[in-house]
Amino acid sequence: MTSNTKIIIADDHPLFRQALALMLKSSFVCSSLLEAETIPELELKLAKTSDIDLILLDLDIPGAQGFNTLSRIRQLYPEIGVVIISGFEELHTIRKAMSLGAAGFIPKSTPVPEMIKAINDVIQGNLWTPQGDYNPDEQELAHEDKLTSLTPQQHKILLMFAEGLLNKQIAYELCLSESTIKSHASTIFLKLGVKSRTQAVIFLNDCQQANASFV
Question: In angstroms, rounded to a whole number, what is the distance separating the alpha carbons of residues 153 and 83?
């Protein structure tokens, strides 16, 4: 895990929240943890805290209204990774969460070592489900917002494209190699259905304008 990673644990069960916090503190010593018991409390922390990297969200937290909170967070804070940690383990629930832009889905029954690996994988820019790496197929993406198919890392890179940064500058900012940035760029273009940086930035601007009207 990178240094100074900020994580919000959004779960209304005190014992599980405490256990999860202890696990994160012992496994990821450079992380900063915040906790929320309800959706209003989560929204308040998001509004008051900058540079949140990850939200561990229980689908059953008071005020969540199913997948509505996940959808709203992805629309308002697309740069933040959201991992669903839930007592629900049905495949259709996992697929729905991932299609709406979750960066990962971890059942609460997941063994601690695997849970640590999953969270670390997401922070490194990958998608994770109990079945392993998640790769949405073209048919699924055709019915969902393509922007939400980007990982948080890919979204950060897209935002840097919009700022006009070169691959070399982005690589320096994210502590990655230039070849990794090029690989991410190719994946971003593929997911958005575009062929260039310019088209990708136009796509992003169109989505932001649509979300502005939503807010």
Answer: 14
Q: Does residue 68 lie in a domain region?
A: yes
Residue 144 lies in a domain: no
pLDDT tens, residue by residue, 194-211: 888 888 888 888 776 655
Domain that includes residue 77, residue range: 6-133
Interior CA angle at 38 toward 113 and 149, to 5°?
Answer: 60
pTM for the model stands at 0.66
Contact 70, 100 (CB under 8 A): yes
The residue among 115, 123, 126 whose CA lies nearest residue 86 is 115
Question: 135 pLDDT band (50/70/90 cuts)?
Answer: low
Number of domains comprising the chain: 2
Tokens of 72: 């709203």
Q: Is residue 143 part of a domain?
A: no
Identity of the amino acid at 94: I
